[in-house]
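pasting for the record
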Amino acid sequence: MTNTCLFTGELLPNDTTIEHPIPYALGGRLKSKEIVSSAINKKSGDMLDNHLVGAFSMILSVLAPLMPKIRGSGKNVVYDKESGTKTYYLPGGKPRLSAVVKEYDDETGELKSIRAQTAENGRRILKEMGYDEEKFKYETVQAPPVVKTEQGFCWQVELGALKAVLLSFDYLLRDSSNRFTRTEALRPIIGKISDALQENNPSLSCSDVVSGIDYKLKPSIDDFRKRWCKEARTEFEHIMIVSGDTARRSISAVWSILGFEPHKFVLSRDWHGDSFTYLFVNGILKKTSASGLCPSNDYFDIRPKTKYSTYYEEGEDLKEYEAILEDIHNHRIEAWRKAIYLIEQESDDILVDRIEQMALVKSPEVLVVDGVQALLELHYQYALSNKDKKTEFDEVVSDELRKISSKARRQSFRDGGDYSHFLKLYRAITRKLRDDVGYPGSMSSQDRKIKLILKQK
């Protein structure tokens, strides 16, 4: 069979580069040299996929140890040439500042600076690491600015998601007589994406194709996936559904990105073929896989267009749109917190390291129990302004900490040893807090931090 590019129609040579319909950095499992040209692959990767990955990169960076390979960071890292520091931004544009940030010299590997909440904490950490604090000076630094939310939600993200849907089903149906992606009904939308890629333009005519994000559709997607896919459900999996309906003369699709953000599209309003529905599931974690094509006898209705799109109508209330962006941000932060919860439930090494980091800040004796309590307080800082949630938090934490023996309370990271009982304790607490208080992961950061910098000789 002769292979041609979906977007240009050109013949594909044997040395065509590999295309991942769902970007590899998003955990995409499918790959092919049979669906798109090398030039379009590179163009769409630079122009669309980087933004699409960047919108979810902080979630992926948390999940990276549970994924087959470490994924790229997308566009959510900002490098300051003047100071030589990097700032990592959470989905939606808010800076992520950990409790302690250490910077090392790239050539010598020696410690250059430490950023901590207070000078006292910084000096204590230097001492624990065996450094002479007299060789360091300290200064107050401002927290980095919040970047625009639009960086995490722009037309490139929406067109990137649309392209991923088309390429995924084009690949999955490559040997099928119902390869709808190659029919006349899809020619207009294929042309629009091709134009956007060629002209580096959002192609405003795509406003009739992009139907926006619809969080209310998630329960229906999850139920449909449960009924029509035999593979066991896994956390943060991608779910795609496409339905063609003869009576409505339409083809519509939805991609629930990482299982929580459903992007909707109307692919055609001129479909004259048979009705069909296909489901595709792509797991992103280790020991998961792609489901293959799952046919269904049920039509999946994506419902009307939402306002959760960058293709908003001219003259619409900008305040309403800002509220929409904030809601998108909040949904992504909730997914980020679920990722933190999952990694801390699954990885002993990561959880021990986080508890130890907090113990260094909290306790002169570097007690493990102090690190546990400090990490919990940091993670749930966002929720403790709510009186009821604070009461629940205090009760659960105090009840569980009372179960620790007096001997265990004296255990320090300086002594080494087995920390498994503390990991069980921490995980039991976060499981209890999950429903009534929330998932761990605080977004709040200090306006000022102390930075201890190695003195110039």
